[in-house]
Every structure is written in structure tokens, then in C-alpha cells.
Design brief:
360 residues, alpha/beta, 2 domains, 5-stranded parallel beta sheet, 14 strands
Length: 360
Amino acid sequence: MITKIKVLVVDDSAFMHKVIADIINSDNELEVIGKARNGNEALLKAKEMKPDVITMDVEMPELDGLSALGKIMATDPVPIIMLSSLTKSGAEQTFKALQLGAVDFISKPSGQISLDIGNIKEEIVKKIKIAAGTRRKLQNFISMPEIVVKKALTTVKKPIDLTRQLNKLVLIGTSTGGPKALHQVIPRFPADIDAGILIVQHMPPGFTKSLAERLDSLSEIRVKEAEQGERIIPGCAYIAPGDFHLAVSRPKMDTAKELYINLDKSMPRGGLRPAVDVMLESVTDHFWSYMVCVIMTGMGHDGAVTLEKIKTKHGKIIAEHQSSCIVYGMPKAAVETGMVDKVVPLSEISEEVLRMLKEV
């Protein structure tokens, strides 16, 4: 007999309650054990029913989703998936939720009351199943934000030197748990890092710009959402926009050794756009010098296929250690290729990247 994953659904809309519950109950591995209409009800039912996973609406009366999330994580952490709208405000609230300890988020396809939420049925079911396996890691996962906050208090940005020549690249790929992980890696890079940084974070459109802005506000380096045709500069990090592959290109007469962003809307790779493999393939095809590749937390195997090409270009590869991954999928697939040079926990990734950059 299958032991079903117990889910508590929190949403102030009766319609959204019913549709989400129907989606969850349609899978024979999942079961809705309760519903709550606001954050206060969520607190009571989470304590009483002990769900394996909670889906939590962001905007609710009496006690909103963010406040309820913070209280639950402070007392008895449970894997929580936030449901938010595809707006700038929704994106900002989502990142606050991820900082507070939410495992993942689902963007409602057409606003607070999404009549078409059935279109993302597979995503909802998949993310609940992933979240159910993360409970044991939640305590470590939610204890990390303060490190970044303390650093941010003394952060002073240096102006970008457009005359610096690009001779090194850092390539980062991540998915579930990635926004939180990136907040532990990027702010630890110094302003004078002698490499450009390219990042693929699996995210839908509308969220990557907010992610870039939040990281930029905490970091000495510049962090931005990548734009078509811009030149890659040392000391800058470029995040792939949602729904675009992040590739690179070189001028036809490339005497200056310059590299440019090339946003690509070609077919998704393994169902993903952006895809880490697309970025890595493009860089190995066009970059002439030293690179360090980092594969962090996330489900699946994106990035693993192209690691051999990184090694043929004499690049170094780091994988996040299982102990700090919210989902040990992408790093595991990378390690299994036999191409990884170093496996380190999240807290040591920045230091290891800087050490590898200094080796050449």
C-alpha cells in the first residue's frame, strides 16, 4: 500500500482551494489532508495535522502567506511551496519567501484567481513530490540568510572598468533551491574578481530580473539580468532571463578577445529554457581561455552532458555537496560523470571558485 504524501492547501479563494486540491488528489501518491483560508488557520492546521508539504498562497487576509511562513519555519519547519502572481510585487514577495525558507514557488498563470491553473498541473504535482523529500534539510536551509545580511551592511560597489580584458569565466547552473544558494555564493565574490560570471537559474519569465536586483543589492560585484548583445565584463554577473537560453558569441574579427551575450529562444533542452547545457556548450564553442563551472542544487541532470567539453577546454568543475543541497539532483548527475574536480558544501563554493581562479 502506498504511503501518500500529505498536503495542506492554504488559499483564501474557495475556487483556488478546490482546483488545487483536485489537482493534488488526482495523483495516487498525494493526498490533501486539510485546507486553510488564511495564515492563522494555516498555523493551527500545520501544528494539528502535521502535513508533509504545505502549498501557501502569498496574498491572504488576517495573516498573509509570508508571515505564516516565517512563523511555521521558526517553530516546526515544514516544506512549503508558495503560490504567487506573475507581477513585480509577486516576484519580490516570492524571493522574500525563499529567503524565509520556502522550498520552491509556483507562479499562478493568470493572477490571484487563475481559472487556468489546471494548465500547470504537472508542475504542481512534481514540485510537491520534490518538496516532500526535503524536510530533513530544512533547518540548515532556513538558517543561512543572516550571513548575507551581515555582509550587505559593509558592501561598497566599485565602478566597472570597461577596459578590463576578459580572460576567465565562472559558469553557474542551478534549479530548485538555487535562489537561496545564489544568495550564499554571489555576495561573497569581491568587486575585483578577475572573471565574468554567467548564471542559469531555472525560473519562469518575470522572476529573474527581481533575482538579479536582489543579488546586486547584496553584492560587491554587479549582478544583472542578461541583455541581448551586451559585452561580458570581469566583475559582472549575468543571469539568464526566464524563457531564454543564455548563449555567447564573438565578433567575426575578434582581435580584442571579446565575448557577448546571445539570448536564444530555440527549443527547450530537456524541457528547460534556460538550460545549463546550452550555456556550457556555447561557452566551450566560443571562449578562448580559463573557466570554472559550478553545478548547484536542483532536480534533474541539466549541465552534466556538457561537462566533458568543459574538461577538454581545461576548465575546472565544482559540484555542491549533497549535505547542503535542497535537492541533490543536478550535482549528483555531475559527480556521476567523473568530471568533477571538487565537491564542496554551499558555504565553501565561493572560496573554492576564487582559489581555482588564482591557479592560472
